[in-house]
Amino acid sequence: MKSADHLKEYHRKIKSGEIERPKAKTPMEKALANPKSMRAAVNAMCWDCSGFSRPEVKRCEMEKCPLHNFRPWQSKDNAEDVGKDISALSHT
Ligand code: SF4
User: Fold this and answer.
1) Which of 7, 8, 44, 86 is the most buried (most CB within 10 A)?
2) Do the beta carbons of residue 48 and residue 36 sit within 8 Å?
3) Which protein residue's CA is at the shortest distance from atom 2 of ligand 1?
4) Domain residue limits at 49
């Protein structure tokens, strides 16, 4: 069976109630499940700090927070600037 067929079968089973749709993990659950992931830890910290709201993390204006440049769910423009900052640091 091809992967597309597996996917169709999966969706059919979910629609029919044969299997339950898996619940998405929160950023905190992801961090607890993967305690060695720095990315998961930062995501969980920002998510918690912002009242469990991804849009609030995105809009965070606390530029003095050490995690600000590394917070998740930023706009792509901002994320590209962070990449420049990091590469500039590695060349100094
Ligand atoms: S970057 Fe913003 S959302 Fe993330 S921990 Fe700092 S203050 Fe909170």
Assistant:
1) 44
2) no
3) 60
4) 24-90
Cβ burial of 21 (10 Å; 0-12, 13-18, 19+) is exposed
Dump pLDDT digits (tens) for 67-89.
999 999 997 766 555 544 444 44
Domain total of the chain? 1
Instruction: Please indicate, yes or no, if residue 9 is contained in any of the structural domains.
Output: no
| Pocket flag, ligand 1, residue 82 (CB < 6 Å) | no
Question: How many whole angstroms from 92 Cα to the centroid of ligand 1?
Answer: 27
Predicted TM-score (pTM) of the model is 0.70
Per the listing, tokens 């709201």 go with 53
Q: Which residue has the tokens 């749709």?
A: 21
- State if residue 40 touches ligand 1 by the CB under 6 angstroms criterion: no
